[in-house]
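Postdoc handover notes: sequence design on the structure in folder B. Input tokens:
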């Protein structure tokens, strides 16, 4: 495969591998067309060579044109850092010498994470159960209040502690009217919720 060699102003080279020629295009026309299209600004086309004439790519950044061929200018070789070595001893902590200790540490961390998740879930479930229980009590007390009001019977605040606690939490005085209002609110909310389900 042919390669175009352009000598750049800083002494380095650019090597271009042209795409295939157009159908029926003579080789020289093809290479001239690619050279005009790909020539970097301020560079000169100095040669067309086969891939086998190129030096090994290990020090590609140090390739220069010596007037006859591409050679490696050792003064341009940049030191390479190993891909496996860290940039500094402080950037990556040294792994434990014992793989079993790392495995045990990871297992302990995972176990502790699951314990925290389980504790959090249990707390949330307990809170949800308390909320459902309070809502159920409030609804049952509200139904009892509604029945007593419909029957013209007196409402006993001692018989509806959940509604009383709710009214006190709102900072309102506990009166029979406040209890009836709270009961109506719960009954309406229950029926409204049932309509949406």
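Designed sequence:
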């Amino acid at each position: 495969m042919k390669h175009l060699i352009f000598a750049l102003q800083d002494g380095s080279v650019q090597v271009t591998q042209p795409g295939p020629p157009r159908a029926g295009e003579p080789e020289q026309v093809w290479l001239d067309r690619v050279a005009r299209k790909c020539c970097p600004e301020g560079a000169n086309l100095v040669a067309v060579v086969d891939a086998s004439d190129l030096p090994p790519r290990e020090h590609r950044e140090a390739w220069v044109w010596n007037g006859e061929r591409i050679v490696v200018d050792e003064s341009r070789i940049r030191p390479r850092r190993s891909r496996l070595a860290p940039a500094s001893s402080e950037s990556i902590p040294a792994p434990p010498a014992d793989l079993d200790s790392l495995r045990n540490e990871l297992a302990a961390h995972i176990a502790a994470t699951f314990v925290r998740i389980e504790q959090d879930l249990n707390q949330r479930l307990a809170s949800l159960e308390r909320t459902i229980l309070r809502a159920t009590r409030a609804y049952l007390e509200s139904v009892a209040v509604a029945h007593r009001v419909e029957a013209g019977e007196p409402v006993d605040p001692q018989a509806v502690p959940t509604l009383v606690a709710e009214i006190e939490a709102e900072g309102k005085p506990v009166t029979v009217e406040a209890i009836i209002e709270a009961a109506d609110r719960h009954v309406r909310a229950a029926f409204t919720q049932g309509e949406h389900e």
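Context for whoever picks this up: The longest helix spans residues 99-150. Don't rerun without checking with the PI first.
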